[in-house]
Each structure stands twice: as structure tokens, then as C-alpha cells.
Amino acid sequence: MERPRVWQTEILLLLAAFALLTSVEGRCRGSREARAMARDQELAQKRGGNLKKFSLDFNTAEEAYHRERWTDLRPEKIFDRRWAIDLLNLVLNRLEAEYKKSGKSRLFERLRPALTGDTAGLACAEIAADLKMSGDAVKMAVSRLRKRYRELPRQSIADTVASPEEVDDELRHLFAALSG
User: Fold this and answer.
1) Integer distance in angstroms from the first to the last C-alpha of the chain?
2) pTM above 0.70, yes or no
3) Exposure winner among 10, 26, 115, 172, fewest CB in 10 A?
4) CA–CA distance, 152 with 90 (Å, rounded to integer)
5) Separation of alpha carbons 150 and 156, rounded Å
6) Looking at the predicted structure, is the pLDDT value of residue 83 above 80?
7) In which domain, by residue range, is 114 found?
């Protein structure tokens, strides 16, 4: 029996592959599995297959409400206070990221008590010696940090309201929610 030549084998393989993968309207019609896979991909795209998954963690939310101390405040007030605290935490995290990005994360960590009102942890002379800065430079850094901390809530709120005129009202609402 004579062995088939190399080119004959290649032609047979190509014909077999062509028979399996005849393309009609961009779909693979050679096998049932390929059609099912194409259909699954189409359905996944319709259901938002290219979107990021977002998980709601109800247990964490419940724990947060159970940790809240008992109060006779209405739920709306509790919600507003929680929103205000979350916004300020978000702003603090953004500020920390800015300092980290500019290579000043150690400075931020040392000056962070200036934002939270913990002046006992803010000894300018000690911070100046630790960071190899002058006392005046530390005071200026505190001033700049506080200024930026005042700007970021305004920017965050401006991103969520329809018009710039609403920003001041939202800021008043934020401070009212924090004060009581």
C-alpha cells in the first residue's frame, strides 16, 4: 500500500476543517457546542456581560446599623448623618491618595490629626524634626492640608448635583446632618 503524500494529507485536513467550520453569517455551523457557545456569548452581552460585577453585602450593612447607638432620631436624620460621615471619609481617602501619589504619604500620616481635631497628636516641633522640615514649613503644610480638605467635599458634592447653585445648599445640609 502506498503512503499518501504530505500535500494530500494537508488537503484532506483542510477539507475536513472546512466541512466542520462552514461560516454562515459569522456563526460557526460545524458543531452543536460551537453554536451553543456563540448563543451563550450573545445572551451574556445582552445581560451586561461586559459590565463589572457589583456585590451588595447585606450583612455588612446590617452590622453597621446594629453598631449605631440607639437614638430617637428619625430614619431620615440617621441616613443624612451616615451620608455626611461617609462623604467625609471618602474625601479623607481621596486626600490621602493625592498625598500618596505625590510621594508625601508620611507627611499626610503625621498631619492627619490636624483634620480630625486631635491637636494633642499634632506637635509641630516633633513633626518638623521627624520629617526634617522647619516648624514654619510644617505649619504651612497643615494649612494647605486643611484648605484641600475644605475643597474636596465641595468638589464631591458638585459631581452629584444638577447645577452649581445647589452645592452650597448641599454643604449646609451636610453640616446640619453632622451637627445634630
Assistant:
1) 97
2) no
3) 26
4) 9
5) 11
6) yes
7) 71-179
- Distance in angstroms (rounded) separating the CA atoms of residues 36 and 42: 10
Gap between the Cα atoms of 110 and 126, Å rounded:
10
- Backbone φ, ψ for residue 51 (5° rounding): -90, 155
Condensed to tens digits (0 to 9), the pLDDT of residues 163-172 reads 888 999 998 9
Per-residue pLDDT tens digits for 123-136: 788 888 888 998 89
The Cα 38–Cα 26 span in angstroms is: 10
**25 within some domain:** yes
Pair (102, 24) in one structural domain: no
Of 78, 55, 83, 56, residue with least CA distance to 67: 78
* Model confidence at 2: pLDDT above 80: no
Beta-bridge partner residues of 26 = none
Beta bridge partners of 23: 28
Number of domains in the chain: 2
Residue among 132, 85, 94, 90 nearest 110 (CA): 132
CA 139 vs CA 51, 83, 94, 136: distances in Å: 46, 31, 21, 5
Instruction: Identify whether residues 80 and 167 lie together within a single domain.
Output: yes
